[in-house]
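Hello,

Our lab assistant flagged a job as stuck in the queue for most of the afternoon. It eventually completed. Since we weren't sure the result was trustworthy after the delay, we are filing this so someone can double-check. Below is the sequence as submitted and the structure that was eventually returned. Let us know if re-running is recommended.
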Amino acid sequence: MKGIKLSILFSIMFFFVFSFWTVNAQEKIVNSTDALLKEAIYNENRVKVLNFSLKEFDALFFEFFDKKSNPNLVLTKEEFYKYTIQIAVFSDRLATLYPDQKEIAAENKKKWFAENYEDYLLSKASPKK
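-- returned structure --
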């Protein structure tokens, strides 16, 4: 009888510990100022970017990479996110134009939304070889 109570107690403890680990391991969503800024830029530019031609998008894309790679220029947080979010929004347009590429467009949008200003600043600070 004592062995059964002990095994039940052990099972209950195992259940709670395992449940805690599972819940704790789930991705935590943090509403940072960056997320709010990205959302504001997204809402502000969505309609405009969805109407971009491929030529306008290419100009935006290459302008961003020129500025990003310029060692004498550091974009502000707002400038950086304006470029990355606009590039992300254009993925929605590509998904509409090419329905068979929806998954790739969604992955690209997620990638561009995940861009981080602090990572950009770190890349600017690190010496290039």
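-- support follow-up --
The delay was a queue issue, not a problem with the job. The result is valid. Residues 40 and 69 are 26 Å apart (CA to CA). Confidence is low (pLDDT under 50) at residues 13-20.
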